[in-house]
Write a structure and sequence with these properties.
The protein is an alpha+beta fold and 186 residues long. The protein is built from five helices and ten strands; from the N terminus they run αααααββββββββββ. It folds into two domains: 61 residues, lambda repressor-like DNA-binding domains (434 Repressor (Amino-terminal Domain)), CATH 1.10.260; 108 residues, Jelly Rolls.
Length: 186
């Protein structure tokens, strides 16, 4: 029954045995045997698999007819705002805390002349940035570009990088940070 539950949830999420193996730190061969009900996994192994699937361990042990679906609405006034050392920069965290170190989403507002400098993230981490209002300059290592409303950029941010407001009006960006799955979560 545990093997069937794992396979059902894995397929529902559209992930391969290889991906689940990386996420759970359980070998692909062992996962295959568990799904085929050829071995009886330890509770510790089931717990690792549950973490890899991002489900409660009870869902694997007891099963459910359908995996729980997420439908979460957060009002802007309830979204977490981070304090920064950079004057004139407000960072609104859109993504849930459970996604930290995996996929993070932000709305970042820059007052006139404000600048946000960031140190290098984990290897192969990427940022995806869309300018919603105003104009900004994005610099990553030796690369730099000026952007205006509607422009989109993606870049590796595993090097020092900055975003600065170029205009004489406020600027607002939407940013997604995607961590490389091979580096693991923080």
């Amino acid at each position: 029954m545990v093997g069937e539950n794992i396979q059902r949830i894995r397929k529902f999420q559209g992930i391969t045995l290889h991906v689940l193996s990386e996420r759970s730190n359980v070998s692909k061969a062992m996962l295959s045997q568990i799904e085929a009900d050829k071995v009886n996994p330890t509770v510790a192994t089931v717990w690792k698999i549950a973490r890899g699937l991002e489900v409660d361990i009870q869902e694997l042990l007891e099963g459910a007819r359908e995996p729980k679906r997420i439908f979460q609405h957060d009002r802007f006034e309830d979204i977490t705002t981070l304090d920064t050392e950079a004057d004139g920069v407000q960072i609104h965290v859109l993504s849930p805390l459970s996604m930290v170190g995996d996929l993070e989403m932000y709305i970042i507002a820059f007052e006139e002349g404000a600048r946000l400098a960031s140190e290098a993230h984990f290897p192969k981490t990427e940022e995806f940035l869309t300018v919603l209002e105003g104009a900004v300059r994005v610099t990553a290592g030796e690369n730099s570009t000026d952007m205006k409303k509607g422009d989109f950029i993606t870049y590796h941010c595993d090097i020092d990088h900055t975003i600065e407001n170029l205009g004489n009006t406020p600027a607002v960006i939407h940013m997604v940070v995607r961590y490389n799955a091979a580096t693991g979560r923080i």
